[in-house]
Design goal:
It contains six helices and no strands. The protein is mainly alpha-helical.
């Protein structure tokens, strides 16, 4: 074992010694020029509203949905969203049923099928605060519970209480007060 360690040490030193570059001269300095946006880019995935795409887009349509521009999503996918919503949620089981926003299944799924995160430039930014709805998102907004309430909670958030809350009410770590605001993962 001792011979193996000695051979490994010599090999490691040799690799390091002969693979280091001579980067102390000025001729090898590369100055950053900024990002290169040349070329053609294609969108592969989108998730403006967490879990909406996951729940309402049928598995065979995921790739098509993820590459459809948001302005065309409602027209192309609203019917699929409505079919999946009415099959999934007892709160939309009857014609005329609505959520707490007063939206029936067709209106609500038309909103959901356009998978964007709206941002209010001149008002409150929140996913839902009791008054403002889908005007953006704060880090502390309980997005999944709001989505569950709108999907399962009915007109006054009281229908299907066991389906209307993810029961995750706080983060395991506090947000930072400076950028990047998110706590370290460990």
């Amino acid at each position: 074992m001792k011979n193996f360690k000695n051979i490994f040490t010599v090999l490691l030193v040799t690799l390091v010694a002969f693979n280091c570059s001579d980067d102390d001269d000025a001729t090898g300095i590369v100055t950053p020029t900024g990002p290169d946006f040349a070329g053609t880019y294609t969108q592969q995935d989108q998730m403006g509203r967490p879990a909406v795409n996951t729940v309402f887009v049928s598995s065979g349509s995921k790739d098509m949905f993820n590459t459809t521009v948001p302005t065309a999503q409602s027209g192309a996918f609203q019917a699929m969203f409505e079919t999946n919503l009415t099959a999934l949620s007892p709160a939309f089981a009857n014609a005329g049923d609505a959520n707490a926003l007063g939206q029936d299944a067709a209106t609500f799924t038309g909103l959901l099928a356009t998978d964007v995160l709206n941002v209010s430039l001149d008002g409150t930014t929140t996913f839902y605060d009791g008054t403002n709805v889908l005007t953006g998102r704060n880090l502390a907004d309980d997005v999944i519970t709001v989505e569950l309430l709108l999907i399962f909670g009915g007109e006054d958030f009281t229908e299907n209480p066991t389906l209307s809350n993810d029961n995750v009410d706080v983060n395991d770590k506090a947000f930072l007060t400076t950028f990047p605001y998110l706590a370290s993962p460990w």
